[in-house]
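A further point concerns the way the authors explain their paired sequence and structure data. An entry of this sort, consisting of the sequence and the corresponding backbone structure tokens, reads as follows:
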Amino acid sequence: MDGTDIREQDATTAAAFDAEVDGASLMEQFLSDPSHDYKNLKYGDVLEGIIMHIDRDELLVDIGSKAEGIVPAKEYASLSSEEKEKLQIGDNLLVFVVQPENNEGHPVVSIDRARQEKSWRRLQELHEANEIIEAEVTNYNKGGLLVNLDGVRGFVPASQVSEIRGGDDSSKQADMARLIGTKLPLKVIEINRHRNRLILSERQAIQERRDVMKERLIEELKEGDVRKGRVSSICDFGAFVDIGGADGLVHLSELSWSRVRHPSELLKIGDEVEVYVLQINSNEKKIALSIKRTQAEPWSRVATSYEVGQLVKGTVTQLANFGAFARIEDGIEGLIHVSELADERIQHPKQVVQEGQELILRIIRIDPQRRRMGLSLRRALDTPDTELEAVFGEGILEERDALVQKIRAALEAEGLTGTSQNDAPAGEGESSGEGSTSAATESANVGADQVAAFEERRQRAEEAAQNRRQRETRQQRPQQSNDSVSNFDGDEELSAIALAFALAGADEDLLNDDAPAEKDENESTEK
């Protein structure tokens, strides 16, 4: 072997040695790279994987372990048909390690549980951020609704759903069945990942939205605005009306110009109404509304709509010792003095008429400034047939005759038939025409005085009651706002004894509940 061959052999040996060194260096670098380390899997790990193979019963996913992870069909059942069809090799997926290694050496992973875990984390963040979410109702049980939130099943108690009415179980079940498939705004009120417990509330979500809307609405509203709304609830002291995200109270006294005993006489839940904004309390977030102020004040057009001598129909609304009040139309009432009920001598209106009875009446006096109207029943019943038919049309004569018979029967039952208003007890007055005229005139004057006194006492009682409520409202400490149970200016009325003092003409101070007690203390001190 010559020198040339030796040199060539050495060069080949050196090249092979260098190549071996380079290969070892590359292997060392590969092994030292943490991205190429096999992962030590454990139950509960959530990993990012790449789809390597798609089969009918399973998926193979590369998750960086010694072998591909297997996703059985039951572990991706939450995927819709469209989502399953869109799966392709090379797609990235989030998987949850169910079993680190099966009998064949493959880890078993789940897409469903990974989605659940992701949803749990998201729900926890939403709960901490106090945010509202939406979910579809999938089913229900005896206690409430079941919803699905990206693989996590949540429970909404029936008491936390506004559209589930109270009552027996059958009505609740019907309401819950009707909500399946609908989406509800929900608020997480309890979350426990370890116990797989998720409780939600639709009522809280709606209330929070309404609170936000109410604050915005209160900033926009102005006193004197007229808005359209829907009656949301009715109570003894008034009705609540939703005017676009906030409920305002229409107090009983603001429902109508006429007297109303209970809001249900005029309204029912769901009615669309037009309301006038009376007052806004930004601190307590309360809104006072009025329905009657969207309508013209009835007495403002009495002078043009009615005249003395006109025949009208009226409904008896209240009885007093001196006469009966009758409503001619909403907001307009007149007095039928006891002397104008019948030709007989009447001691009390209940002897002739009763509340709720419809009468044919003649207007005998109008005072728009003082909001008073005098009516007569006996003069209307004495009206000629032709005039009655000209005013009311056919059928009025039969109605008049039936009314006369009813009044006559009532008088006979009281033993008042045959008596006359001009009859005076023996020894009192004279039976001459002059004396009869004088007595009638005096009776009319006394009646007018009684009406005036009664109206003044009633007005003074109402003003005193209003002042008293305002004083009590100012003295009360602010309370937490609650739309469903709160009212604006309070709903107290005068007690029976206070009302008696007021109608008797007592001073306003006597209407205070503490006044009698103070008076008794002063009297005992003087003694």
The domain at 130-206 is CATH 2.40.50.140 (OB fold (Dihydrolipoamide Acetyltransferase, E2P)). The radius of gyration is 44 Å. The first helix runs from residue 3 to 32. Confidence is low (pLDDT under 50) at residues 424-444, 477-497, 499-527.
